[in-house]
Amino acid sequence: MSRRPGPGRAARLAAAATSVVAAFALAACTQIPTSGPVIDGEASPEPVSQLYYNPNPPRDDATPVQIVEGFQAALQGAPTGTFDVAKSFLTGDAESWSPYTSVYVTTGDAGLDVDETTLDSGRTTVTGKITVVGTIDSSGVYTEESPGSTLDLSYTLTQDDAGRWRISQLEDGLLIPTTDFDNSFQRSVLYFATSDRAQFVPDERWFPRNVTWSTSAVKALLAGPATWMQDSVLNVAPPGTTLVGSVPVDDGVAAVDLSSSVTDAAPEDRALLQAQIEATLVNSYPRTQEPIRSVALTSAGAALVIPDVGTPRFASTDATPVAVSDGALMSLDGSTLSAIEGAPPLAGFDPTGIAVDGDLVGEPADASVYLRDGTDRILRLAGDGRAELLRADDVATPSVDRFGWAWTGQGDGTVTVFGADGTARPVDVPWLAARSVTSIDVSAEGARAVVVSSGPGGVEVNVAGIVRDADDVPVALSEPVEIGPALVSAREARWAGDTDVAVLGEQPKDGDETVRVFPVGGPSVTLAVVAGSRSIAAANGLATLLVVDASGGLSGRSGSGTVWRPVADGVTIVTYQR
């Protein structure tokens, strides 16, 4: 189980690399093309201009610290091109340095220092310490670090016969400042399929933004999903299936040649594999490169026969908000609250959370409302009556998945799902033992769940894969990955897009709870504070975020999705139909 890094994690991080250094001297010139022809063409995406760098090679008279600074400056932008200039700072064993074994996303100055007592010997060490905000492993998985995490740095340098200092020893790895991260690495979403092959499941990765991007993405897809997702998605590539060569792109077509093992795949699996590769490349390619519109799948150069069968679709949530106002269920259209004719009455209840299964606004007779009554009861309200599903201490607001199962957690760490007939099924989640569940939400495609819990070690926000049986009944949650490592409190977490999770919580020194967006596998974003925030809802993207404050004010994102705007008053709860 992946836990919050904390001081122990920071200490291990500080010792993880003893010879990687950072000092972001402006030794490289950044240039933007300012001329070129205007070309008429089709109305299709065209590559956009990208920053490119012209780094300086090492000077013969540079000091050890200047050599290290120059090396790090030469790394800026190198992922988009080559490391040729950076490698000119290296000598001896250091020439075998591999940059992508691990990537550290950093901020601030390294505070470089040289051991002056050894300069006359022709061999010395430059050391420092840098703040790390995130790491990327060799498979492209991004992990956000706790605030204050640092990395101890050390370079060994030697002097050649001409008196020139060069780096002779450093560990594998790359340091990228946050200011250069988006220009150097491409957010890339690998797509796998749900167990029923109906919908895609996203797996966010980060790869260098260069001509090898498509090759990196296909190799990662063939290697399979992130560990925590392995029992929740299909991986149809037969064992031993690998990419042969690279993935060239010509006139919008990506040519993907696979090893002969792929011919062992059943016809429907070949179709699914092509759909996965195409969804990954078409939707994630760097906009600085030629657009990818389709994929040609071959093995040993021969086209694979791909049957015309159904393939997964991209999941989405019904973006129709439902609110509780004046003790009744209301629809929200823009800023107008309207009573829903035919909706179940809430009289006699203390609504503290709701989930809607079906089109309550359009077809209320066929929809179900799952209600948290106070903090100790879950009920199902529908056209066929009402039923108490659970009475227990500290139950979490329900969440409904696309198969119609209603989820909730309890103060004792148990997780339970309920069928439409009221049947209760326990979900096996060993890692929640001795913890209290305060929030649970299932993603639109039904393969992932985000859980907020408290217990030993404080609050945690974890994302886990949902394991289902042959009848799509949830039976377990996988070992999770933690997001939001810096939070000292968290009230709720809601899926807000394919990989984004919106969390209402607090970081040290905040003084107020606010909404933070934690991509599962990407850097987080903090949104402006809505004073007195009490609950949140989200559907498809950050523009759908809604926040209810303590006074009943409902705020939503602006049309551009960049700022909060008032929407309505007198709201106690808001959610989206599922």
Automatic annotation (TrEMBL):
InterPro entries: GerMN, LpqB_C, LpqB_N. Residues 214-308 form the GerMN domain. Pfam families: Germane, Gmad1, LpqB_N. Keywords: Signal. It comes from the Bacteria. PROSITE patterns: PROKAR_LIPOPROTEIN. Residues 1-27 form the signal peptide. This is Sporulation and spore germination protein. The keyword Signal applies.
